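Marked as duplicate of an earlier ticket. Keeping the data here for the record.
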Amino acid sequence: MAGNLLEVFDFIAYGTFAVMIGRVFFPARDAFVSLLLSVATFGIGFVTRPLGALAVGLIADRRGRRAGMLVSMWLMGLGSLLIAVLPGYASIGPAAPALLVLARLIQGLAWGAEVGPATTFLLENAPPGRSGLYASWQSASQSLAQFAGGLIGLATTALLGGAAMSGWGWRVPFALGALLVPVGLLLRTGLGGEPPLPAAPATGRLALLRSSGALSLGCALMLLVAGTVSQYFLNYVTTYALVALHMPSWLALLGTVLAGLFGALAALACGILSDRTGRFAVILLPRLLLALSIVPMLMLLHADPAPWLFCLVVAVIAVLQVGSFAASLVLLVELFPPAVRSTGFGLLYAVAISAFGGTAQIVFTALIRSTGDPVSPAWYLALVNLLCVGAAWILMRRRPAHR
């Protein structure tokens, strides 16, 4: 999970520093246009996720989960290094945004390749009765990556100041991520305890992927969509605080730190709770609470953007979102037979992330711009979370056959 944390850290860092990256690579007279181009480039990184999930998922299902995780680590290191050293538009003109897009495409391949093998490895190595806790480390590591990104952002802002941070300080997290990739590779090379891989039967891998049923797969996709949109709102919180609430940069970055910290704690707590009480209550209740509370919380925050209230709202969203998502991971992985688990779960996850995670920040930004209402993204969050509650209810009636 240390390797998983490094991968997610590099991916999240772009969303955290989208405003600053936009100024360097997409200079425009209208600051909003610069931001929109920057978050659109963030979305481009999702285009290659399904390809990474399919290609590396097949490697993980045929040659072992560790082999797939090593490939994803190499790819993420390359993408992060490119972003760290790329000259801006002022130096090389249109080549700068073109190369930034290439780096994002490589990062997309890496993260698409990561989630299937890593989550499957965790689940398959869990002792009896602790699969929820083990799988929850996947969500916890993502939150810890967000925590690390915000903390480094706060530290570099305090040390360098706003001008240096906008000019080159935003590159520091990407450089650190690239430098730490060898550590992740070393840890993963030494992984042991991988169970023997089951062989695909004569019916073939495609038939196994279809065996879960269209309705169950559709409901599972809805769970991932709700988790994706909600999580990327948390990743967007720095930009939201700067653009919609006009808060100082230190407070916006503090929101990212709090989202990561409370999300990690909620993931592990809900993973343990799901092992003791069952998955569905831990999935359903936080989603329902988030759907019902997100609009009033953002309305209240917009009416009174006090620092303490901003921190409280971010913490509540993080606990409800990450806690529910962590509890759902075991259910989602077990939809697929072991012989196609890395490919199946990774591909389903990548499709949800690509279609809805890749567009989330664009949708949030465009909603605020078109309506003039900073609360407008909350209605989108409420809708997808309500749909998730219905999907989880259907899945509860259609328990996965594969264990």
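See parent ticket for discussion. The radius of gyration is 20 Å.
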